[in-house]
Structures are given as C-alpha cells and as structure tokens.
Backbone:
C-alpha cells in the first residue's frame, strides 16, 4: 500500500454504513433540506413503498438520526418525520467523508 | 453517490412540489381575470377582497386536494424566514410604487408619458411581480405568465384592444393552464388509500 491509498482508506473507514445505503441516504437528504415531512411526502418524492420506507426509517430512528412522531389531524392519525441534531451532524459528517474519499481518487 | 444526489436539486424539487398541483397558477389566473372584470365593471376597489378570498380558498383546496396526495412538508425555519423576508420586500416595493403613482396622479403632476403609457407601466409592474415570484419560487412557467400579462398592455396600446380584455385574456389562459396542470397532477397522484394514510409504521 502506498501512502496515497492509505490516505484514501482512512476516510473510507469513517463512512457511516447506515447512511451509505442509497435509500436511507436519499431519505436523510430529503429530511436534511426540510424541517418536517410526513410519510406520504417521502413516498411521493422518493418512490419507495410504504413498507420499504417504514423499514428504513425504523433503522434511522433506532440510530437516533430521525424522530417519528404521530399526531392526530381531526380523527386521522398523521405520522411525521424529522431529522434530529445527531442525524443532521451524522449526515454532514458522512458527506464530508465521502467528498474526501472521492477527491483523493486519482483522475483518469 | 454524493455527486448523484445533489442537495440543491432536492431542495428545488421540494420547492417545486409546492407548485406542481397548478393551484397557484389558477390563483394567479383568477386574480388577473378579476382585475379585468373589476376594470370592466368599475369595481376595482373590490380587488383586494377578491385577492384575499381566492388566496384562502386556494389554501383550503390545497389542504383538501394536495396534501392527501403528495403529503405534507414544512420547510426549515431558515427557509421560511427567507421566503417571508422576500415576500415582505416585494410587498413593501409594490406598496411604495403604488403610493408613488397615487401621489403623482393625485397632485396632477403626472408626466404626459405616464398618462399615455399607464397600462404599460401598470402591466409592467404586475409582470415584474410575477417574474419575481417565478425567480424566487423557481417556477419557470410563471415567466410565461408575466409575458401574457405584459402583452395585454401592448395589445391595448398598439392594437386598440380594450385594456380589461388583455387581463381577461391573460387570466383565462393562465387559469386554463392551471386547470390542465391540476388535472395531470390528479391523474399522476391518486389519493392514497385511507388505510395507507392512516397506517402506522408497522
């Protein structure tokens, strides 16, 4: 291994695998640019199925990256999702690490 | 991955979701149409009440029609402050221009060119406001609406078409486009099944 590859490997080891999964990355990215979104909005924007979205959000919730809140609009339950401060920081760190990894790759 | 999903593009997409139902197009079209009828019937003073009426109606319809289809999103506090500040600036500028025109008109000090080309100035200001909304809301089709509005004055001054007909024509076209967008939106996003909307995360 050369010094250069070592430099590339170092930020790779810091990549958050939970966020690295494409669907979860997409969800984090959407939640990063808004304050609160409901399930329906995330489905319409990402094209995920209800079950798929639910599964990914549960993993993000378990890691403390998102908060899922249930409220009632009239008699109907309404589920909203927002990024926590921890999730926001994790996402920013992930982006920084990915950028460093990509920037260090040699060009053709 | 980082390169593929651009945060600014996502933000733009989120903003655009606000305009994809065509309701704001219908709102603008009705407002312009209202101007035309207000001038035609000499009830221009009612336009403020009409504006407020359709504004709240659009919000009501949006809650009933749009949110059950594409869901609800609240922009970040920073974005909301930025949007509010922009529309406040716009409101103040419009108010100042209106007061200035009113004063110039009132004291009889209006220059001849203003009297001759008043429709051009008036429609120009309206078109500029619509361009402003198009730019800040990133809704490009609103630029086209600004052109329609401005053309009303051009047709009036150079083709002799009554001024109010320009508003009625532009407003009707904008409403029709809005209705077309709304129909395509309703087809693209059917209302989610009740159980899906109400379901828990399980």
Residues:
């Amino acid at each position: 291994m050369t010094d250069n590859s070592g430099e590339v490997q170092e930020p790779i080891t810091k990549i958050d695998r939970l966020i690295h999964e494409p669907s979860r990355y997409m969800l984090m990215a959407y939640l990063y640019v808004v304050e609160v979104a409901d399930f329906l909005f995330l489905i319409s924007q990402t094209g995920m199925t209800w079950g798929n979205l639910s599964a990914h959000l549960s993993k993000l919730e378990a890691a403390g990256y998102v908060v899922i809140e249930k409220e009632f609009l009239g008699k109907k339950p309404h589920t909203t999702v927002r990024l926590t401060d921890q999730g926001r920081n994790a996402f920013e760190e992930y982006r920084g690490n990915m950028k460093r990894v990509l920037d260090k790759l040699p060009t053709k | 991955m980082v390169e593929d999903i651009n945060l600014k593009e996502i933000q733009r997409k989120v903003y655009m979701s606000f305009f994809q139902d065509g309701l704001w197009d219908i709102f603008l079209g009705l407002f312009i149409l209202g101007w035309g009828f207000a001038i035609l019937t000499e009830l221009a003073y009612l336009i403020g009440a009409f504006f407020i009426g359709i504004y709240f109606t659009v919000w009501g319809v949006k809650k009933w029609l749009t949110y059950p289809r594409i869901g609800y999103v609240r922009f970040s506090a920073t974005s909301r402050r930025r949007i509010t500040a922009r529309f406040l600036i716009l409101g103040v500028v419009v108010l100042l221009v209106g007061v200035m025109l009113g004063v110039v008109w009132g004291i009889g000090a209006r220059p001849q060119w203003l009297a001759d080309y008043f429709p051009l100035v008036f429609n120009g200001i309206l078109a500029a406001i619509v361009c402003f909304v198009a730019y800040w809301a990133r809704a490009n089709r609103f630029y086209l609406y600004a052109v329609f509005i401005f053309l009303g004055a051009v047709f009036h001054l150079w083709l002799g078409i009554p001024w109010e007909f320009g508003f009625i024509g532009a407003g009707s076209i904008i409403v029709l486009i809005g209705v077309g967008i709304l129909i395509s939106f309703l087809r693209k996003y059917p209302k989610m099944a009740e159980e899906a909307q109400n379901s828990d995360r399980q």
